[in-house]
Amino acid sequence: MSIPRIWLNGALVPADEARIAPTDRGLLLADGLFETLLARAGRIIRLDRHLMRLLEGAAVMQIKPPYESRTLRAAARETLEANGLATNDRASLRMTLTRGPAGRGLALPQDPTPTLMISAAAAPAPPAGLSVMVSSVSKLATSPASPLKTLNYTDNVMARMEADAAGADEALMRSADGGIACATIGNVFVVKNGSVTTPPDDGSIRAGITRNDILALARDADLSVSEADISMETLKAADEVFLTNSLWGICPVTTVDGTALPAGPITKKLAQALEEAWASDVV
To answer: Fewest Cβ atoms nearer than 10 Å: which of 42, 126, 185, 210?
Structure first.
């Protein structure tokens, strides 16, 4: 089996030879950002949107990316090809940007040298359905990091630990008022009487790229769409629930806290619309 290759700071290197400084702030302080992307037969879905989000997040965190977007576009494709994934039906890419190595403590380095790494792997088909549980972990809108795709996933990991302990596939994280904010690895939607609702982009969630696709597609389909708080009562009364992220697209929720839920017609309709939109890249 061939050794995977990593694009690291401008060069493709075997993964077992890739070296990141032990003083890198991404490792020590989670001081960085990342993007996860899906490639279908070599075509990277929503690449420009992911790059834009990465660069916008870097601007907020005052990390100057060491490469321009056009270089990162080429690097992503080179990484796919170097790993023999350019013809795979599904492959995943991860771009990771950190502030780079620095001295001890929180003080920012005077002359930073950010780290940029891209890795690739084969991606399985999305699950046919997911069992979810409601976690005790909350997302806080007061944190400036909440809407950014930072390396700090401690809350998400702890919520996933609760899901694992409960025998569920995924966890739903709470909002500050005790409602539902998001899943650990994506956004959440509920459907009731044909109306589609997802929590608002109020700072407590990461408003995903696929989430935005679904909102646009639902409106194009003349569905009633709202960005509003989802209470526990709303979740329990939902006709359909589904999750979205950039690797799965849409994944139906088939069990909530042990209660079975069908993968309904709205979920299926939007999943098909998303598949077509990604195939033609029109959203």
So the answer is: 42
